[in-house]
Design goal:
314 residues, alpha/beta, Rossmann fold, 8-stranded mixed beta sheet, two-stranded antiparallel ribbon, 11 helices, 40% helix, globular
């Protein structure tokens, strides 16, 4: 479904009822909004088979929002693809839906979007969950080049495209570099995001997903992503916005995550007063047996901060 807000249509989806039965009593479940990564990736990553986020569904009405101009949202002018604008888009959707407050969760690039929203609209956020996210963006380009070389990429032009894309400096037409970037991203993700020996099924599924993505979808995602990165890849620092984040906050990363290094998560933890930090034994998002402790920690955090984590009928 679409929300017509701020001059465009943004896709959002709702999973589960708000008003439900708990035994013989009518109750309202809290609402959790999930902001996807990228920037510019689809909310469908949260719904992917074996992603694990269905662990949260018994306790919440889940709302997923795609980035402005990306995925299932309508195309939008590149000058509107900014962090400030997508923060206001989320707030406009909250008001449109008549939500009082909600739990805000963001993973990877969504872990930049979520704290930015919680900082700008603290009264709308009951809890903040930041998963596998960087604390600042001034190291993006350097990290991209380092990951490409560690993953075995040897083509210097491909490394340059990846570095410039992640660093927000890739301004040429997307048709000129999309295929090269896809190949580099796939090689990096398969080598570094997860342990390929421990999770060969993840590598296989990821490879199929990238290789079967239609060309027009690929170029749309990359084109949108590069404009978001052009906006904040040199200027984002969680320390600049942390003082106005008032919600209880949980930060999680993996001990081998090459994107959201443990030092970066520690930096977020230090910046957001009273936050909690958990490091799971995986890479960039958990897989297989890594998911148990990951989602147990999220539910424990929410329970300790006032969310009823006893399942109710949907």
């Amino acid at each position: 479904m679409f929300a017509s807000v701020n001059g465009t249509r943004i896709f959002f989806d709702v999973d589960g009822a708000r008003a439900v039965w708990k035994g013989d009593v009518e109750v309202e479940r809290p609402v959790m909004v999930l902001l996807p990564g990228g920037p510019g990736a689809s909310h469908m990553h949260y719904k992917r088979p074996r992603a694990g986020f269905d662990r949260l569904k018994p306790f919440f009405q889940m709302i997923y929002i795609d980035w402005r101009g990306a995925a299932r949202s309508d195309p939008a002018p590149s000058e509107t693809l900014t962090l400030e604008q997508v923060v206001e888009d989320v707030e406009s959707i909250r008001q449109m839906l008549g939500m009082d407050k909600w739990v805000v969760l963001g993973a990877s690039g969504g872990g930049i979007w979520a704290p930015a929203y919680a900082s700008a609209h603290p009264d709308a956020v009951t809890h903040l969950i930041v998963l596998h996210a960087p604390a600042r963006s001034d190291y993006f380009a350097e990290t991209a080049e380092s990951m490409a070389r560690r993953a075995g990429v040897t083509d210097e032009d491909a490394i340059s495209i990846y570095r410039r894309f992640v660093g927000g400096d890739l301004l040429e037409p997307v048709e000129q570099w999309a295929q090269s970037l896809r190949n580099t991203i796939l090689q990096v993700q398969n080598a570094l995001y997860t342990d390929p020996k421990k999770h060969p099924d993840v590598v296989k599924a990821r490879t199929k997903s990238w290789n079967t993505m239609p060309s027009d979808e690929l170029m749309k995602e990359f084109d949108v992503s590069r404009w978001y990165l052009n906006d904040f890849a040199k200027s984002y620092r969680v320390s600049d916005i942390a003082k106005t984040i008032s919600a209880p906050t949980l930060i999680i990363t993996g001990e081998t995550d090459p994107v959201a290094l443990t030092a970066q998560s520690e930096e977020i933890h230090q910046a957001i007063e009273g936050s909690e930090l958990f490091i799971h034994p995986g890479g960039h998002m958990p897989h297989g047996d890594e998911q148990g402790p990951f989602f147990d920690k999220i539910l424990d955090f929410l329970s300790r901060h006032g969310i009823d984590t006893e399942p109710v009928e949907s």
